Amino acid sequence: MTDKERIESIEKILNLTTNALAKEIGLKNAQTLYDILKGKHGISKDLADKIAVKYLNINKAWLITGEGDMLKEQQQIGDVKNSTIVNGNVNGNGNKITHYTPEYENCQKEVEHLKAIIDEKDKIIAEKEQRLIEKNSLISEKERMIKLLLKEKE
Predict the structure, then answer these.
(1) Which of 28, 67, 88, 126 is most buried, judged by most C-beta within 10 A?
(2) Are 36 and 2 in contact (CB under 8 A)?
(3) Cβ-Cβ contacts under 8 Å for 43 (sequence gap 6 or more)
(4) At 43, phi and psi to the nearest 5?
């Protein structure tokens, strides 16, 4: 598989344009990727590092050499029929869905923890908004009563 075909495979499985892929991996512009697609040069170790850091399941050795599988070999937990992205990890057209790295799992746990905190804070905000509505209603009622009292005085 050529460097061009490997970049095209990554774009396909991630459902990204060349420009979007460049942005995702932190390139200032997509020219490097376009040069690879035109056959001007190959995938550098630096570029492979950027892709592998962003997409943990992509095999860096495959990126550089074209040998082996596009996805890292990890314990298989199922197969997929179509290209998908599951929780940010790439799973492609008939390839294995794999367990995620411990770092990824730790991040997922942290995300779940933060989501729980956000949900709790959202409940507190909703309660305070309800109390604010009730207080505004009381203020409106008291203003109405003041107006009535002032009219009676006249």
Answers:
(1) 88
(2) no
(3) 3, 6, 7, 36, 63, 64
(4) -80, 120
